[in-house]
Each structure stands twice: as C-alpha cells, then as structure tokens.
C-alpha cells in the first residue's frame, strides 16, 4: 500500500485493527518494530490489551439516548470526545509531513494533540495548525535547556506541559536492539538541536535511539523537579507515567493539574502493572483533586467507555494515530479519530448513556478468572 492512500483503491478500514494491518503493510519492518514493539518479553505490552478485554460494563436501560453525544472537557477545554493524541516520537519516520499532519487531523476531530520532546517537526509548526496542542517534556540532563523547552512551548501557544516521569532511560526494546535500529538522516530530534546525533549512528546489538536518549535524559528527575517546573510555567502540568496511588497523592500535594496513568505502552518496565488495573486506585487516591487520564492499550470506542466507567477523565491514544499516519497521512489519522468517535457514541448509547457524565456512573465487572477491576465497578448500579 502506498502511504497516504488509505481507503483509496483499498477497503475503507472499519476499525483500528484494519488500520494497524494497513500500517504494518506500509512500513519497513524495522520502522514497524520501532512503532509496535515493547520492552523485554513484551509482557506489559500484551497485558495492556488483555486488561481492557477483561473489563465488562453493566449497561443501563430505559434512558433517553436520542441525543447521545461524546462531548466533554479535558484540562478545562471543550473537546468533541474525551480523547487526546498522546506523545509519540518521530512521526516523520512514518510519513513525510510528520507531526504537522497529525496535528491537523486532531484539530479537525476536535481533540488535543501532544507534541513530543522527540518530535521530528518543530513545535511552532505544529501549533500553526491551530488546534489544541500539549507539549510533552522529558527532563534533560541540562536543566536550563529543559526549562528553555518549556518557555518555547509556551511561546508557541501550547496549552499544557505533559511531563513524562517513567523514563530515566529507555527500556530495553529487543526488537530495536536486534534490528540495530537507527534514525534515517531526514528524521531529527528538532527540539534537541536538530543535527545528526548518536541516534543516527548505530550498529548491530544496540538501538541508536536508546543510546541517544541515555545521553540526553536526566536520571535525577525528582519531586523537586516538579516544583521547579511549577515555578517556571503558568501552563497546566500533567504527569504521565503514574501507576502507584502513593505517587498520585504526592502529585496532588505538588499542585499538578492532571495525571496520566500509563506504563508507557509496555515500552519501559516490562512487567509493570497495566493502566487499566492501576486506574481505580489512582482515581481513589486523588479524590477528585485533579483529572486522571488513562494511556495504554486503547483500541476502540468501547475501551474509552470502559476507562470512563473505571473513573478516568479521558484517554490518550498513541500508536493508533501513528498507524493512520503511516497508512494514509492526515486522512489516515482523521479516519482513526472518526472510528473512535463513532464507536464511542455507539457504546455510550448502547450502555444507556446520553453522554460522558453518565458513562462515569456505569459499573464494571472483571471477566471470570480475570483481575481485580474496581473503581466505579465496585458499586452496584
């Protein structure tokens, strides 16, 4: 399949599995492994998906759903559905227009787009699309350079800082190691100088991207760093990568505006608990003091409904928009978001919910033999 041709001369994808297959067919094998892979034995990667499959919702009946809609708010801003595109590095690996195309699709869909520190397109070009843009921040070894990125994001018009807190260094992603993965010359970390780096110089038995991040990312990110960030920015602060309720409570004490419950898509600690399983404890720990979003394994609108029922304010989707970008450029990303919006509206109505607020009052059950799904599901409806 030619990139940018999703749905033209081929069957229009009906769900995200269709888009995933189209992306896998469109990308070189090593790039596909970089996008799709996890760390270690990929236990957490597989568990993210299994955790969603183990949650079942109790639908409500005899409710008027004639005006069913998925509109909501995230970080105080109206959105067409409680979904944001999460940060993923190097979109130009999969399509020449990279993050710019993804941002335009997000704007058209009425959802936020999170531009990464490791973006292959400058944040100023991304915000020029005119949509709601959040900036994902890695804390660099050079604190001054880190805070310069924050100011640059503010000046560009970003609406939030998403501080990723689970990457002191990159997890051991064996697909990339086996492939000796390196960035092609045309793909650069434009926010980190934009020149050639160790990410472009690889060899057998190592991931050049992992070597580059090990040289660049701080291993000394602490709660004092969060305090420093709070002092230097007026933007909402979101911590991404929180799984423990103790950390969630401490985040509230430090005045963060939202948390993203996430195991980094199964790409950091292999064996880390899934976001689905961690979510109820985190929601309980913060007690409504900040928003709580879920990231990891979302593949359908029904998954979004389940996350809402478990107490999430919304979800991030990372890989799926990149699949759409790989298979169809901006149109492909729009198709991904259209599928999610349609499936979520369908799931809301069939669950007896006229909107997102009602979904948060649904109850859930774990599959027989499954894990301990709780949250809203601990209550009988």
UniProtKB/TrEMBL annotation:
Q: Which SUPFAM superfamilies match?
A: FMN-linked oxidoreductases
Record key words, sorted: Flavoprotein, FMN, Oxidoreductase
- InterPro entries with a match to the protein in the record: Aldolase_TIM, Alpha-hydoxy_acid_DH_FMN, FMN-dep_DH, FMN_HAD, FMN_hydac_DH_AS
Q: Does the keyword Electron transport apply?
A: no
Offer one Pfam family short name for this entry.
FMN_dh
> Is Oxidoreductase set as a keyword in this record?
yes
Required cofactors, per record?
FMN
Q: Where is the FMN hydroxy acid dehydrogenase domain?
A: 8-369
What family name appears in the similarity comment?
A: Belongs to the FMN-dependent alpha-hydroxy acid dehydrogenase family.
Full protein name:
Alpha-hydroxy acid oxidase
Which species is this record about? Streptomyces glaucus
